[in-house]
Amino acid sequence: MTITCMIVDDEPLARRVLEKYIDSLPSLKLVKECGNALEATAFLHSNTVDLIFLDIKMPQLTGIDFLKTLRNPPRVIITTAFSEYAVEGYEYAVADYLLKPIAFDRFLKAVNRIITPSPAAPLACHTDDEHKESFMFIRVDNADQKICYSDISYIQGYGNYLKIFTGSKMLLASSTLSEMEERLPRSIFVRVHKSFIISLDKIDKLEGNMIRIGKQTIPVGKHYKMRLENIIKQHHI
């Protein structure tokens, strides 16, 4: 399978690095390089691509604003030097983000997520109906920490790091929220915001755009609200 790619970045050097990386992978085909989002918009009016490598901080139209204009966006991997902007991209379901300067191994990991979006994870089930395992392992402080799904209340993302809240404890793990979302069983966990995944079992109250879990109030993002409401309706009486 060949994945057609497009680079949207106002930095020539950043485009050259991505071009080199893309050319090294037979599964990727670069079809367009754009120096700004307006040029990319014009190209997409009459062309399609499978994947966009998208910078965020660009003149005239930012990468996030560009994403907002796309009705049926392709897969997107954010490329940026500013991690605080990258987190915002998760509101628009980006596949991953790469923090500049981009290392090839990190680039390859992001691309592999596109090529095989649901890799076999031995300790997590990705079906909507049931889960075979009740725990997972995650890297915490240079050790593999076992975490039971039933202990997790919610998870908060900070770029390449996660805060995993398990009752009275908080674990800081080196991973992205999108990576965690792929591993967790969907029958138990749901992403409700660009920065939050919650356990359905731990919800005490849903009121408007806010979820109450214990003493913690968690926002519900507008792009995630409909899915959450549909899940709640399935359990309504």
Name the descriptors.
15 strands; alpha/beta; 237 residues; globular; OB fold (Dihydrolipoamide Acetyltransferase, E2P); Rossmann fold; five-stranded parallel β-sheet
Give structural notes.
It is a single chain. The chain has 237 residues and is α/β, with parallel strands linked by helices. The protein has two domains: 3-115, Response regulator (Rossmann fold), CATH 3.40.50.2300; 135-234, LytTr DNA-binding domain (OB fold (Dihydrolipoamide Acetyltransferase, E2P), Beta Barrel), CATH 2.40.50.1020. Helices cover 27% and strands 32% of the residues. It is built from seven helices and 15 strands. The strands form four sheets. Strands 2-1-3-4-5 form a five-stranded parallel β-sheet, with helices on both faces. A hairpin with a 2-residue loop joins strand 11 and strand 12 (196-199). The longest helix is centred in the N-terminal third of the chain and has 12 residues, at 12-23. The protein is globular, with a radius of gyration of 19 Å.
Low-confidence stretches: 118-132
Biggest beta sheet attributes: 5 strands, parallel
Second rung of CATH, namely the architecture of the largest domain: 3-Layer(aba) Sandwich
Beta-strand percent range? 25-35%
Topology:
Layout: E1 3-8, H1 12-23, E2 28-34, H2 37-44, E3 51-55, H3 63-69, E4 75-80, H4 83-89, E5 96-99, H5 104-115, E6 135-140, E7 143-148, E8 154-158, E9 161-166, E10 169-174, H6 177-183, E11 189-193, E12 196-199, E13 205-207, E14 210-213, E15 216-219, H7 225-234
Parallel strand pairs: 1-2, 1-3, 3-4, 4-5
Antiparallel strand pairs: 6-7, 8-9, 8-12, 9-10, 11-12, 13-14, 14-15
